[in-house]
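Progress note, sequence design subtask.
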């Protein structure tokens, strides 16, 4: 009888050891599967457009061949790129949750790393001009510092890319450039109107008027004085 119970105990112990081994193997397989299913990394060269840190997720906007791209930029602290810089972006597809939509999951492109490959026109402009643009506005208009900073980048980009000969000459000779800011309604649309001017011996000479459209479009227009029309500036 003792031999019988000894045999039963040996069988049970062997069964437990086998189950433990199987569970260990299964766990290892599950871990291997997770490792194998890590998100694939993608890489591309793009033209930097802007940062947007105002929403639930920080964003980086870029372009390639006139196509717009938007990346989640939450874990990237670098904010040194200027519009037009050629950058390399490494990203992966991962999940975001849309606030206000029942936390609905959605796939998006997440930045893994970025680096600048080549200066754009704004970076080149800053290295050459080496001055701050000055600006002023009427106190009847209340602008947040964030919006003033946004306008500064818009004007800087325009100056760096403008084909206006007077602006080119002012940049080349490093004259002091400043701009005024005001609000106007034109054809039932609200615009921030920017007057770019040079300043010398207390004389202000306005060179170009720009219209910056409010709303989601945020489009910039040159004012064509002879024809009294707005021409979109790309």
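Output:
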């Amino acid at each position: 009888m003792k031999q019988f119970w000894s045999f039963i105990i040996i069988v049970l112990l062997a069964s437990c050891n086998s189950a433990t081994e199987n569970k260990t193997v299964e766990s290892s397989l599950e871990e291997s599967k997770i490792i194998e299913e890590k998100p694939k990394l993608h890489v591309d060269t793009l033209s930097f457009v802007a940062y947007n840190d105002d929403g639930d997720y920080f964003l980086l906007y870029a372009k390639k061949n006139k196509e717009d791209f938007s990346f989640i930029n939450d874990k990237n602290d670098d904010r040194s790129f200027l519009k037009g810089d050629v950058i390399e972006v490494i990203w992966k597809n991962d999940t975001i949750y849309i606030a206000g939509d029942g936390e609905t999951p959605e796939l998006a492109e997440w930045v893994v790393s970025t680096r600048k490959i080549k200066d754009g026109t704004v970076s080149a402009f800053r290295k050459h001009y080496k001055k701050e643009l000055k600006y002023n506005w009427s106190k009847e208009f209340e602008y947040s510092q964030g919006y003033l900073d946004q306008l500064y980048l818009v004007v800087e980009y325009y100056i760096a890319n403008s084909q206006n000969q007077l602006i080119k000459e002012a940049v080349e000779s490093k004259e002091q450039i400043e701009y005024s800011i005001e609000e106007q309604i034109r054809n039932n649309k609200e615009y921030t109107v920017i007057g770019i001017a040079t300043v010398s011996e207390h004389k202000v000479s306005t060179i170009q008027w720009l219209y910056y459209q409010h709303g989601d479009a945020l489009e910039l227009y040159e004012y064509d004085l002879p024809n009294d029309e707005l021409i979109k500036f790309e």
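The chain has two domains: 41-118, 122-232. Work on this subtask will continue into the next period as scheduled.
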